[in-house]
Amino acid sequence: MTNRRVGEVMTGEVVQARRDTPFKELVRLLDEHRIGGVPVVDDDDKVVGVVSGTDLVRRQARGGGPEASAGVTATALMSTPAITVHPEQSVPQAARLLERHGIERLPVVDEEDRLIGIATRRDLLRVFLRSDGDIARQVADEVGAAGAGLPPGDVRVAVRDGVVTLSGRVERRSQVLDAVRSVWRLEGVVGVVGGLSYQVDDCAPGGTADAPLRR
To answer: Are 118 and 11 in contact (CB under 8 A)?
Structure first.
């Protein structure tokens, strides 16, 4: 079984701040975009911290009012080091990070720690909201003529807690791969168990009969 990846559910357009972003501008960003926090990046777009609404309120409580916060920038307010996640990490792994650190959002970074997206608690939980029955009906449609092009009845679909199991036998291995890719695109699918077999491996020279899908 494989799990959905953070890169599939993250938000790509990220509201962000710089080290020198002033207090008032941070407040404006959170209010204007109706968000709970922003990642702070350096001149290379690498994430150096996160400023949340809680950080801003805490500063106000300590500082004695707006005037006292006039010269305060993101550097003094941000939580650091930032807890980040990579796009290839699984949704369950990211959810565990949120719970472990008691935070609401995870900046998504590339191999060089540059910001490429944001994954909020809502983004990660959204994949769990659909019922298994609803998912199963859409999966059946996707692997049929409108999806992977498989005749009705060739593939059996079972869904439990968002995990889709595909079983049955098809003609070509490429049909198996197309079916799995089609299923992964569906909202609510958190895992796919490959139980399909195929008669001919049309993805490799020579072809192999009656080979099960291995994942």
So the answer is: yes
Task: Express each pLDDT in 188-199 by its tens digit.
Answer: 888 888 888 888
Pairing of strands 211-212, 191-200: antiparallel
Least confident of 56-60, 85-89, 116-120: 56-60
pLDDT digits (tens, 9 = 90+) for 23-43: 999 999 999 999 999 999 999
Question: Which two three-digit tokens encode residue 170?
Answer: 């098809």
In the structure, what pLDDT confidence band is assigned to residue 179 with cuts at 50, 70 and 90? confident
Place of tokens 């509201």: 15
Rg (C-alpha) for the chain, rounded Å, is 23
Q: Report cis status (omega within 30 of 0) of the bond before 87.
A: no
Q: What's the pLDDT score for residue 152?
A: 61
Gap between the Cα atoms of 95 and 118, Å rounded: 13
Among positive and negative, which fits the CA dihedral 119, 125, 127, 130? negative
- List the one residue out of 129, 19, 24 whose CA is nearest residue 67: 24
